[in-house]
Design brief:
It contains 30 helices and 13 strands. With about 900 residues, it is α+β, with helices and mostly antiparallel strands.
Amino acid sequence: MRPPTLLTIACLLACGPAFASPQESQREAEFLNQYCADCHSGDGAEADFRVDDLVEDPESHSKLTWMTVWRIVEEKTMPPEDAEQPDDEARQRFLGDLVHSHQLEIHADSTDHWSFHPITVKPASSEQGIDLTTAIDQAIEVKLNENGLSRSPVADRRTLIRRATLDLTGLPPTIESVNTFVSDRRPDDEAFGTVIERLLASDAYGERWAQHWLDVIRWAETVGFETNAERRNAFHYRDWVIQAFNDDMPYDEFIRHQIVGDVTGQDAALGFLVAGPANLPGQVGRDIEAMRQARQDELDEVIRTVSQSLFGLTIGCARCHDHKFDPISQRDYYSMQAIFAGLSYGDRRLRGALNDDWATRVPAIDRELALLTDELEAFRVDHQLRHPVTGVTTEAFAPIDAAAMRMTITQTTNGTASLYELEAFTVRSGTEDATNVALAKSGAQSSASSYALANQTRHHENAIDGSIDKRQAFPWVAAKSGEAWIQVDFARPTKIDRVVWHAGQSTPVEYTIEILRPTDQEWVTVADSRDRLPIIADRRQRDRISLAGVPTDQVQTLVDLLSNIRSLQSQRSRFANGPQTYAARFDDSPEPTFLLLRGDPMRRADQVSPLPPKALLTKIAKGDAGLPNDDAEVTAEVGRRLTLVNHLTDPEHPLTARVIVNRVWQHHFGVGLVQTASDFGKMGAEPSHPVLLDRLAAELIDHQWSLKWLHRQIMMSKTYRQDSLPRDDAIAIDAESRLLWRFPPRRIDAETIRDSMLMISGKLNRTKGGKGFDFFNRRGGLSDYHPKETFDESGWRRMIYAHKIRMQSIDIFGSFDCPDAGQMTPRRNESVTPLQALGLFNSKFVMRQAAYFASRLQPDDVSAERSFAEVVDEAWQIVFSRHPQPEELELMVKLADQHGIEQVCRVLFNSSEFLYLK
């Protein structure tokens, strides 16, 4: 068969589902005819893809087929690049325009996935119906009956209170709380309801459930990547999340604060948006491509955080092309990115009572600083000193013929000599401007005592390259601290009258500038620092400062004065800036956002508008909410984020409520109704109980998004309160207990293991908030982490208050699948490895806590010694919330008699019953 003609292809494209205008069809036909038809037509078509197939039956090819074809074109898989063709560059530009000259509409079937359907189940309050607790049990029972299963009996009260306490607080129950519940004569519903209320009111609840959220967004207190430097003020976000859970902050409000906390006054909440890793500015190259790439990576982390945690979608997969499975186009990705185009990573002011207090202290400091500054200026005038050096300092002198110049730096602010640029200017003559003759492009040559080697060179030639933009330039840096010199030989002898130096990574505070006379080849000093007032940042002691005409005692007076000014300036800066928290900052005038071809920051296509994914907007009847026009505080940048918040918290949104109720369910039962907690897309799991999932979501919205209310409903159900004992017949049908024929037993997580040991030993430090304690010898950096083996009282706080280092597994407890914040962890693994057993049994921490536990059981101040049987019985109640069986008691008494109570405690810490929630 002949290749299709230009006219044939034009007709095809005109009637095809993907394109509309004849002009577009003509352009596309030109392209296909020139580059595709020769290889992809007839019986011998390459890759079995025939253009004439499309011609013969265009209606059989859906828009998804066309999207696939054009994605191949867009990704440059086809046609192959051919640099030998004279029009190759023009062809590539045309191709980029072609692919993005129209927008392919999302195929109707692609949004037909269950998670994009609206929640149609109505809450009980809106119609006559059963309450949620009963609805849970009925939904579970229906599935059990369908599979020939039945619910297990209700667990005994000791098991229930241990389960509920570990579940809600991550700590074991006390003997007193267990005995109170066991002896409560009220019906089970009332007695257990009281337990749940007490636990939800505990501060330990927020400390426990905040950790689940931090896992989801892979929050840490270091930046990650090569430097993994510390984020000193990131802990405020962790504390905010804990308090939000304890206050039962409505979930829609929880979302709002984390996206527009600058508007709501919740600055710490904005740590959510910058929870992920990001390169520091110093790690980013100075060229435009490197800076654009780093910026894209920063914003990509924000999109992944927001989309996976709140939407339950992998929107980040559409960065380089349309999502392969979900109705998320590449345009959707960059429209989401545009919402956060004004965002940057860093510290911001933490408003509140402390901030207000600090602000009141600034005026008094300003008055004191003014007095000291006047005193310093008087000192300068009295001793006839020139003004201090600055970042760019000019040394003027009488015109002199020069063949070269040399600057010898003997002392700097940080010990190592460094300059960005060293300039020498000719004498201005009439209308002729002075020119810099210390330029490589003018023939000047540099030399130096040494230069440092770093990621980018710190060569002395950097000082004569003419580049003074520190965003693009690199400085000369000496190889070591101490005296150093840099010399510039001019292309020819020149008369100059000033030298200008630009401070580099340090500021010279003691230096000499010399000129080489061409006539006699003698070096002549034309300027030095001995007649300049030291800068305020100069921390040298008296014996290291040499000032012309200033006696030693007056130098000491100057040193003291500079020290006092520095101290006050530091105080003023601290109080004026206010308390700081590591969180998102925003520019009121964001840069425009472009769709990037294949995600390449250097291949910009058309500009995009800030919007949530289009497929979700169409699912909300009233569309995305606008902004109040009368609020002058709301800038255009904030308006983008407010629109996203209004979109996410709209009761008609199909994902927001479903995602969070599924997370809550997961942490009560080990697995969510949707097993892939952060992926509700097509590659995620189907819900095991879809109607129940929607009922939970509808009820949450109807009850003001209260998570504590949701906990109550789930935990009061018979499904939650059933026993966890195995049954052979049920295991044969549902070995993983996904249908919930019993309460699924599971190992407690790393934090609960450590916190429980500390509580049982009596050493748990309940101090809340603030900077975390350290598991390692350092708080940031790429390597050389050495784990601490012993801790003092500050290290006995709950594990959520540990300083979180990204990509660094915690000794012993890290092996229990504790995430390292390198990736989002919506659900932790539950591995079983020899390292867990070996670490737990031989750890110095565990052995030390076992010793403390033994001391708690046998305190020195007790006059009458108790029998081993009594001690073991108490230990059993503390650790397991029950009395030991006779055979257990006999075995442990024998162990205590032979090796001491401490070894009994060590065994209990290593037992399966301690490590598992049943």
